[in-house]
Amino acid sequence: MSVTLGYAEPLDDDFDKEHLPSKIGGKPRWLDPTRPLSVDKVQCDECTNPMVLLMQLYAPEDEPAEAFHRMLYVFICRNGVCHKASARRCMRVFRSQLPEDNSIYTAQESEAAGSCSDDEDDMSWSLAEQVRPASVCVVCGLSGSKACSKCHAQFYCSRAHQVADWDAGHRAQCGNTHPQMSKSAVYSRKLQHMMYPELVIVSEEEDASKLEASNADYDDDDDEGSDDDGEDNEGIKPEDMALVPVTGEKVEDSEVDVDRAFLLFQRRIQKNPDQVIL
Ligand SMILES: [Zn+2]
Ligand SMILES: [Zn+2]
Ligand SMILES: [Zn+2]
Protein backbone atom coordinates (compact mmCIF):
# COMPACT_ATOMS: atom_id res chain seq x y z
CA MET A 1 0.00 0.00 0.00
CA SER A 2 1.38 3.37 -0.96
CA VAL A 3 1.15 6.00 1.72
CA THR A 4 1.41 9.77 1.55
CA LEU A 5 3.62 11.34 4.19
CA GLY A 6 3.43 14.97 5.26
CA TYR A 7 6.36 17.05 6.45
CA ALA A 8 6.21 20.45 8.10
CA GLU A 9 8.45 22.98 6.39
CA PRO A 10 9.05 26.74 6.58
CA LEU A 11 6.86 28.95 4.41
CA ASP A 12 8.18 30.03 1.03
CA ASP A 13 7.56 33.41 -0.59
CA ASP A 14 4.54 32.23 -2.59
CA PHE A 15 2.69 30.89 0.41
CA ASP A 16 0.59 34.05 0.82
CA LYS A 17 -0.99 33.40 -2.57
CA GLU A 18 -2.00 29.86 -1.69
CA HIS A 19 -5.77 29.64 -1.12
CA LEU A 20 -5.96 25.94 -0.33
CA PRO A 21 -2.93 25.18 1.80
CA SER A 22 -2.22 22.31 4.16
CA LYS A 23 -0.49 23.95 7.07
CA ILE A 24 0.20 24.03 10.77
CA GLY A 25 -0.53 27.09 12.89
CA GLY A 26 -1.16 30.66 11.81
CA LYS A 27 -4.67 31.88 11.07
CA PRO A 28 -7.08 29.62 9.20
CA ARG A 29 -7.46 30.11 5.46
CA TRP A 30 -11.12 29.44 4.83
CA LEU A 31 -12.21 27.25 1.97
CA ASP A 32 -15.17 29.59 1.66
CA PRO A 33 -13.84 33.01 2.75
CA THR A 34 -17.34 34.49 2.68
CA ARG A 35 -18.32 32.22 5.58
CA PRO A 36 -15.55 32.01 8.19
CA LEU A 37 -16.27 29.95 11.27
CA SER A 38 -17.77 31.92 14.16
CA VAL A 39 -16.16 31.92 17.57
CA ASP A 40 -19.09 30.28 19.36
CA LYS A 41 -18.24 27.06 17.48
CA VAL A 42 -14.66 26.96 18.77
CA GLN A 43 -14.90 28.14 22.34
CA CYS A 44 -13.02 25.93 24.77
CA ASP A 45 -15.50 24.12 27.00
CA GLU A 46 -13.09 24.42 29.92
CA CYS A 47 -11.90 28.05 29.93
CA THR A 48 -14.39 29.53 27.36
CA ASN A 49 -11.57 31.30 25.48
CA PRO A 50 -11.50 31.01 21.69
CA MET A 51 -9.46 28.01 20.51
CA VAL A 52 -6.86 28.64 17.82
CA LEU A 53 -5.92 26.77 14.67
CA LEU A 54 -3.59 23.82 15.23
CA MET A 55 -3.61 22.80 11.58
CA GLN A 56 -5.64 22.67 8.41
CA LEU A 57 -5.42 19.97 5.76
CA TYR A 58 -6.51 20.25 2.17
CA ALA A 59 -7.91 16.78 1.45
CA PRO A 60 -10.02 16.82 -1.74
CA GLU A 61 -11.97 13.69 -2.69
CA ASP A 62 -13.30 12.45 -6.03
CA GLU A 63 -16.29 10.96 -4.26
CA PRO A 64 -18.70 12.33 -3.20
CA ALA A 65 -18.87 15.11 -5.77
CA GLU A 66 -19.55 17.76 -3.11
CA ALA A 67 -16.10 17.10 -1.60
CA PHE A 68 -14.23 18.13 -4.76
CA HIS A 69 -12.59 20.72 -2.53
CA ARG A 70 -12.35 19.63 1.07
CA MET A 71 -10.57 21.26 3.99
CA LEU A 72 -10.21 19.89 7.50
CA TYR A 73 -9.56 22.30 10.36
CA VAL A 74 -8.27 21.29 13.80
CA PHE A 75 -8.75 23.82 16.61
CA ILE A 76 -7.25 23.58 20.05
CA CYS A 77 -7.13 25.62 23.26
CA ARG A 78 -3.67 27.00 24.00
CA ASN A 79 -4.25 26.81 27.73
CA GLY A 80 -2.42 23.70 28.96
CA VAL A 81 -4.54 23.50 32.11
CA CYS A 82 -7.61 22.78 29.98
CA HIS A 83 -5.91 19.76 28.40
CA LYS A 84 -5.20 18.27 31.79
CA ALA A 85 -8.87 18.66 32.70
CA SER A 86 -10.26 17.16 29.48
CA ALA A 87 -8.58 16.88 26.09
CA ARG A 88 -11.95 16.27 24.48
CA ARG A 89 -13.39 19.59 25.68
CA CYS A 90 -10.59 21.75 24.28
CA MET A 91 -10.15 20.37 20.74
CA ARG A 92 -12.49 20.47 17.77
CA VAL A 93 -12.31 19.36 14.15
CA PHE A 94 -14.33 20.84 11.28
CA ARG A 95 -14.76 19.83 7.69
CA SER A 96 -15.60 22.29 4.93
CA GLN A 97 -16.26 21.25 1.35
CA LEU A 98 -17.31 22.55 -2.05
CA PRO A 99 -18.35 20.81 -5.30
CA GLU A 100 -16.32 21.41 -8.45
CA ASP A 101 -19.03 23.71 -9.74
CA ASN A 102 -18.96 26.52 -7.18
CA SER A 103 -18.97 30.30 -7.13
CA ILE A 104 -15.84 30.70 -5.00
CA TYR A 105 -12.92 29.30 -7.04
CA THR A 106 -11.80 29.42 -10.63
CA ALA A 107 -9.23 26.98 -11.96
CA GLN A 108 -6.02 27.80 -13.74
CA GLU A 109 -3.38 25.51 -15.03
CA SER A 110 -0.35 26.22 -12.91
CA GLU A 111 2.74 27.65 -14.60
CA ALA A 112 4.81 24.59 -13.86
CA ALA A 113 2.45 22.24 -15.70
CA GLY A 114 3.07 21.23 -19.28
CA SER A 115 0.57 22.34 -21.91
CA CYS A 116 -0.63 18.79 -22.52
CA SER A 117 -1.45 18.14 -18.87
CA ASP A 118 -5.00 18.16 -17.58
CA ASP A 119 -4.14 16.55 -14.28
CA GLU A 120 -5.98 18.08 -11.32
CA ASP A 121 -2.73 18.18 -9.38
CA ASP A 122 -1.40 20.68 -11.88
CA MET A 123 -4.29 23.05 -11.38
CA SER A 124 -4.11 26.06 -9.14
CA TRP A 125 -7.17 27.76 -7.76
CA SER A 126 -7.84 31.42 -7.34
CA LEU A 127 -10.79 33.26 -5.81
CA ALA A 128 -13.45 34.25 -8.30
CA GLU A 129 -13.59 37.99 -8.87
CA GLN A 130 -16.98 38.54 -7.28
CA VAL A 131 -15.98 36.88 -3.99
CA ARG A 132 -15.84 39.35 -1.11
CA PRO A 133 -14.14 37.70 1.88
CA ALA A 134 -15.93 38.38 5.15
CA SER A 135 -14.24 40.36 7.92
CA VAL A 136 -12.13 38.20 10.18
CA CYS A 137 -10.63 38.66 13.62
CA VAL A 138 -7.25 40.34 13.34
CA VAL A 139 -5.92 38.07 16.07
CA CYS A 140 -7.17 34.59 15.17
CA GLY A 141 -8.89 34.70 11.76
CA LEU A 142 -12.32 33.54 12.99
CA SER A 143 -15.38 35.49 11.84
CA GLY A 144 -14.90 39.14 12.85
CA SER A 145 -18.43 39.99 13.88
CA LYS A 146 -17.33 42.78 16.27
CA ALA A 147 -15.45 45.96 15.39
CA CYS A 148 -13.31 48.32 17.45
CA SER A 149 -15.83 50.82 18.80
CA LYS A 150 -13.43 53.74 18.26
CA CYS A 151 -12.02 53.29 14.75
CA HIS A 152 -14.47 50.70 13.35
CA ALA A 153 -11.57 49.53 11.18
CA GLN A 154 -10.35 46.52 13.12
CA PHE A 155 -12.48 43.38 13.53
CA TYR A 156 -12.63 40.77 16.27
CA CYS A 157 -14.23 37.44 17.03
CA SER A 158 -14.62 38.22 20.71
CA ARG A 159 -14.01 40.66 23.51
CA ALA A 160 -11.04 38.51 24.60
CA HIS A 161 -9.26 39.09 21.30
CA GLN A 162 -10.16 42.78 21.19
CA VAL A 163 -8.48 43.23 24.56
CA ALA A 164 -5.49 41.14 23.43
CA ASP A 165 -5.10 43.23 20.28
CA TRP A 166 -5.46 46.49 22.21
CA ASP A 167 -2.61 45.45 24.49
CA ALA A 168 -0.51 44.10 21.63
CA GLY A 169 -0.46 47.44 19.85
CA HIS A 170 -3.85 48.60 18.55
CA ARG A 171 -3.98 51.09 21.44
CA ALA A 172 -1.26 53.13 19.74
CA GLN A 173 -2.56 52.87 16.19
CA CYS A 174 -6.35 53.08 16.76
CA GLY A 175 -7.75 55.95 14.73
CA ASN A 176 -4.95 56.09 12.16
CA THR A 177 -6.44 56.34 8.70
CA HIS A 178 -4.65 53.25 7.48
CA PRO A 179 -4.38 51.12 10.57
CA GLN A 180 -3.22 48.02 8.70
CA MET A 181 -0.35 49.93 7.13
CA SER A 182 1.07 51.29 10.32
CA LYS A 183 1.44 48.07 12.27
CA SER A 184 4.90 48.02 13.78
CA ALA A 185 7.11 44.95 13.63
CA VAL A 186 6.75 44.47 17.38
CA TYR A 187 2.96 44.67 17.16
CA SER A 188 2.86 42.20 14.25
CA ARG A 189 5.07 39.80 16.15
CA LYS A 190 2.86 39.99 19.23
CA LEU A 191 -0.18 39.13 17.11
CA GLN A 192 1.68 36.24 15.50
CA HIS A 193 2.63 34.84 18.87
CA MET A 194 -1.01 34.49 19.83
CA MET A 195 -1.25 31.75 17.17
CA TYR A 196 0.92 28.67 16.71
CA PRO A 197 3.94 29.25 14.45
CA GLU A 198 2.93 28.77 10.83
CA LEU A 199 4.51 25.93 8.81
CA VAL A 200 3.44 24.52 5.47
CA ILE A 201 2.71 20.78 5.23
CA VAL A 202 4.38 19.29 2.18
CA SER A 203 3.28 15.80 1.22
CA GLU A 204 5.14 13.15 -0.71
CA GLU A 205 4.81 9.44 -1.39
CA GLU A 206 6.41 7.13 1.16
CA ASP A 207 9.81 5.84 0.08
CA ALA A 208 9.08 2.15 -0.61
CA SER A 209 12.73 1.12 -0.22
CA LYS A 210 12.62 2.08 3.46
CA LEU A 211 9.83 -0.41 4.01
CA GLU A 212 11.26 -3.51 2.40
CA ALA A 213 13.54 -4.61 5.21
CA SER A 214 10.81 -5.21 7.78
CA ASN A 215 7.60 -5.07 5.83
CA ALA A 216 6.80 -8.74 6.32
CA ASP A 217 6.80 -8.26 10.09
CA TYR A 218 3.50 -6.47 10.11
CA ASP A 219 1.92 -6.61 6.71
CA ASP A 220 -1.56 -8.03 7.25
CA ASP A 221 -1.99 -9.30 3.72
CA ASP A 222 0.68 -11.96 3.44
CA ASP A 223 0.21 -14.09 6.55
CA GLU A 224 -2.45 -16.43 5.23
CA GLY A 225 -0.26 -19.41 6.00
CA SER A 226 -0.05 -18.66 9.72
CA ASP A 227 -2.90 -19.81 11.90
CA ASP A 228 -3.99 -16.61 13.62
CA ASP A 229 -3.35 -12.96 14.04
CA GLY A 230 -0.59 -11.45 16.07
CA GLU A 231 2.03 -14.02 16.89
CA ASP A 232 4.35 -13.20 14.01
CA ASN A 233 4.09 -9.61 15.06
CA GLU A 234 7.31 -9.34 17.02
CA GLY A 235 5.66 -10.68 20.13
CA ILE A 236 2.95 -8.02 20.36
CA LYS A 237 -0.07 -9.55 22.06
CA PRO A 238 -3.52 -7.98 22.13
CA GLU A 239 -3.17 -7.17 25.83
CA ASP A 240 -0.09 -5.04 25.08
CA MET A 241 -2.03 -2.81 22.78
CA ALA A 242 -2.93 0.72 23.63
CA LEU A 243 -6.71 0.37 23.89
CA VAL A 244 -8.30 -2.69 25.36
CA PRO A 245 -12.03 -3.35 25.14
CA VAL A 246 -13.62 -3.13 28.57
CA THR A 247 -16.55 -5.46 27.91
CA GLY A 248 -16.93 -8.77 26.12
CA GLU A 249 -19.76 -7.62 23.88
CA LYS A 250 -20.08 -7.97 20.15
CA VAL A 251 -18.05 -4.87 19.45
CA GLU A 252 -14.96 -6.46 20.93
CA ASP A 253 -13.62 -7.89 17.68
CA SER A 254 -13.89 -4.63 15.85
CA GLU A 255 -12.22 -2.78 18.70
CA VAL A 256 -9.30 -5.17 18.65
CA ASP A 257 -9.08 -4.55 14.93
CA VAL A 258 -8.92 -0.84 15.52
CA ASP A 259 -6.16 -1.33 18.10
CA ARG A 260 -4.24 -3.48 15.70
CA ALA A 261 -4.67 -1.01 12.89
CA PHE A 262 -3.46 1.77 15.15
CA LEU A 263 -0.44 -0.25 16.20
CA LEU A 264 0.46 -0.95 12.58
CA PHE A 265 -0.07 2.72 11.84
CA GLN A 266 2.32 3.66 14.65
CA ARG A 267 4.96 1.22 13.44
CA ARG A 268 4.67 2.48 9.92
CA ILE A 269 5.08 6.12 10.80
CA GLN A 270 8.06 5.32 13.02
CA LYS A 271 10.02 4.77 9.83
CA ASN A 272 9.59 8.44 8.97
CA PRO A 273 9.73 10.14 12.34
CA ASP A 274 9.79 13.69 10.98
CA GLN A 275 6.55 13.49 9.16
CA VAL A 276 3.47 15.01 10.74
CA ILE A 277 0.44 13.48 9.06
CA LEU A 278 -0.58 10.54 6.91
ZN1 LIG B 1 -9.28 26.27 27.40
ZN1 LIG C 1 -10.22 36.15 17.44
ZN1 LIG D 1 -9.58 50.92 16.90
Automatic annotation (TrEMBL):
Residues annotated as domain MYND-type: 137-174
GO (cellular component) term, any one: nucleus
Pfam families, sorted: zf-MYND
GO molecular function: zinc ion binding
Coiled coil ranges: none
Superkingdom of origin organism: Eukaryota
Biased composition, class Acidic residues, residue ranges: 217-233
Residue ranges of the region described as Disordered: 206-250
4Fe-4S in keyword set: no
Keywords: Metal-binding, Zinc, Zinc-finger
Protein name per its UniProtKB record: MYND-type domain-containing protein
